Structures are given as structure tokens and as C-alpha cells.
Amino acid sequence: RKKLIEDRIKIEKQIFEVQQRLLEPNVPLAEFLRSAARLQDHHYEDILIERELDKLCSYPPCGNALVIDPKNSKKKYRLSLSEKKVYDVTEMKRYCCSDC
After folding, report:
1. Which of 13, 25, 36, 91 lies 20 to 30 Å from 100 when distance is taken between CA atoms?
2. What is the pLDDT along the chain (100 residues), one digit of tens a residue?
3. Any alpha helices (H) in the chain, and if so which ranges?
4. 88 pairs with which residues across the strands?
5. What residues form DSSP beta bridges with 87?
6. Pairwise CA distance, residues 44 & 22, whole Å
7. Under a CB-based contact definition with an 8 Å cutoff, are residues 44 and 32 in contact?
8. How open is the CA angle 62-68-73, to the nearest 5 degrees?
9. How far apart are alpha carbons 86 and 97 in whole angstroms?
10. In DSSP terms, which residues pair with 79 in a beta bridge?
């Protein structure tokens, strides 16, 4: 039982180190892909939130700052007339551009 707890603590420390690295701007793409493969969804979601709070694009390989447009900050949806679709922009606000 003690061994299981020690192993779990070791894994959590490793995950925390990966998360800390992915909070930095401009993480190399290969490192990001290797690191992301080791994370569970909720670990990655924590990274997205932290980067957004730091006003960084939520995509770890990107080092761009988030630009908050006050007139668009409360918008929840975007209409695309050409595609005839409605998009929820809540998630999109975490990124600097559509490419990310």
C-alpha cells in the first residue's frame, strides 16, 4: 500500500512538472506533443485555464499574448453567414487566432 502511494506521488510530481513546462510561452511542438500524450484531459484543461489567466494563447507552442477586445469580451456566439453556422466562442477566446 505504501508503495502504491509513493508511486502515485511520483506520478503526480511528474505531471506537475510537465504542466509547469507547458505554461511557458513557445514550447517546442515536439515537446508539446510528447508532453500532452502523458496528460489526462483534466490536466490539459488546467494548462489551458492557467495560460488564459496569464493572458497567453492557450496553445502551448504559441507565445502570443491574448488580446482582449472589451466590446467582444461578452460575446458568446459568432455567426458565420458563409457557412450558415453558429459558433460558441467561449473556447475560442482562449486562443490568439483561429490557427491555434
Report:
1. 13
2. 899 999 999 999 999 999 999 999 999 999 999 998 889 999 999 999 999 999 999 999 999 998 876 666 677 887 888 988 888 877 888 898 888 8
3. 2-22, 29-36, 41-53
4. 77
5. 78
6. 9
7. no
8. 125
9. 18
10. 86
